[in-house]
């Protein structure tokens, strides 16, 4: 039941993101812009740009949007400087929340994040209050056919560097180290009949806080409110349905 709920939540989150393509494109454009400004426009040497472009393609971002963002970033335009910020706190029921933002106005970003916490039963904490509960890891989710050889898939992914592989009724979740992420991502894409949902470097919780389905919905109200903040790029939490 827990596994079914987890995959249902993954699909729900993907569907919600698909429904807000405009906002997703804006967030990805900022990632591309910042990556180019910091490391240039060569994907062979700029890993952050390669990851941002992968995310753009996963979300079917038009090539003209991508090209325009790269041209802006390489054109030495004045007046736009993004700063990476993180925020930490708690959702209802003691759930740890870690927020990553990319903003050109730190005061605005902090105010929006604080408001989201306050309006949805959470508490914004001090730096370091929950970050030790998460690790940066490669995270890939994908839709897979009902008829599949899980043992063969598992061996293929482990050979590529996967550290944890979970199968669901029609889905797959893979975790790996940061250095192995690109290789694992490619291995998932090469699996027969597989369609990648998401592939990213994410903050993954070391342990989970058990909650009921009703409590999980309350937690997700805060998570979704944070994700709706213009400056927020990603939100991690450690809630899990019992």
Automatic annotation (TrEMBL):
<keyword id="KW-0963">Cytoplasm</keyword>
<feature type="domain" description="TACO1/YebC-like N-terminal">
    <location>
        <begin position="5"/>
        <end position="76"/>
    </location>
</feature>
<protein>
    <recommendedName>
        <fullName>Probable transcriptional regulatory protein C6I21_11150</fullName>
    </recommendedName>
</protein>
<comment type="similarity">
    <text>Belongs to the TACO1 family.</text>
</comment>
<dbReference type="Pfam" id="PF01709">
    <property type="entry name" value="Transcrip_reg"/>
</dbReference>
<keyword id="KW-0804">Transcription</keyword>
<keyword id="KW-0805">Transcription regulation</keyword>
<feature type="region of interest" description="Disordered">
    <location>
        <begin position="1"/>
        <end position="21"/>
    </location>
</feature>
<dbReference type="GO" id="GO:0003677">
    <property type="term" value="F:DNA binding"/>
</dbReference>
<dbReference type="GO" id="GO:0006355">
    <property type="term" value="P:regulation of DNA-templated transcription"/>
</dbReference>
<feature type="domain" description="TACO1/YebC-like second and third">
    <location>
        <begin position="82"/>
        <end position="239"/>
    </location>
</feature>
<dbReference type="Pfam" id="PF20772">
    <property type="entry name" value="TACO1_YebC_N"/>
</dbReference>
<dbReference type="InterPro" id="IPR048300">
    <property type="entry name" value="TACO1_YebC-like_2nd/3rd_dom"/>
</dbReference>
<keyword id="KW-0238">DNA-binding</keyword>
<dbReference type="InterPro" id="IPR049083">
    <property type="entry name" value="TACO1_YebC_N"/>
</dbReference>
<dbReference type="InterPro" id="IPR017856">
    <property type="entry name" value="Integrase-like_N"/>
</dbReference>
<dbReference type="InterPro" id="IPR026564">
    <property type="entry name" value="Transcrip_reg_TACO1-like_dom3"/>
</dbReference>
<dbReference type="InterPro" id="IPR029072">
    <property type="entry name" value="YebC-like"/>
</dbReference>
<dbReference type="InterPro" id="IPR002876">
    <property type="entry name" value="Transcrip_reg_TACO1-like"/>
</dbReference>
<dbReference type="GO" id="GO:0005829">
    <property type="term" value="C:cytosol"/>
</dbReference>
């Amino acid at each position: 039941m827990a596994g079914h709920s987890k995959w249902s939540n993954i699909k729900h989150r993907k569907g919600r993101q698909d429904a807000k393509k405009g906002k997703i494109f804006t967030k990805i454009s900022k990632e591309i812009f910042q990556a180019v400004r910091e490391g240039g426009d060569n994907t062979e040497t700029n890993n952050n740009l390669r990851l941002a472009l992968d995310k753009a393609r996963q979300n079917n971002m038009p090539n003209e949007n991508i090209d325009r963002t790269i041209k802006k970033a390489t054109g030495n335009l004045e007046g736009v400087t993004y700063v990476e910020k993180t925020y930490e706190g708690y959702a209802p029921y003691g759930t740890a929340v870690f927020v990553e933002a990319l903003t050109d106005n730190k005061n605005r970003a902090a105010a929006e994040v604080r408001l989201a916490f306050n309006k949805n039963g959470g508490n914004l904490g001090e730096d370091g209050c929950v970050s030790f509960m998460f690790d940066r890891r490669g995270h890939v989710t994908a839709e897979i056919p009902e008829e599949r050889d899980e043992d063969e898939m598992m061996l293929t992914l482990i050979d590529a560097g996967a550290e944890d592989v979970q199968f669901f009724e029609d889905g797959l979740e893979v975790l790996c180290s940061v250095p192995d992420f690109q290789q694992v991502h490619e291995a998932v894409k090469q699996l027969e009949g597989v369609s990648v949902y998401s592939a990213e470097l994410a903050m993954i919780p070391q342990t989970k806080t058990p909650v009921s389905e009703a409590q999980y919905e309350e937690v997700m109200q805060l998570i979704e409110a944070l994700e709706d903040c213009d400056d927020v790029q990603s939100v991690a939490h450690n809630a899990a349905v019992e």
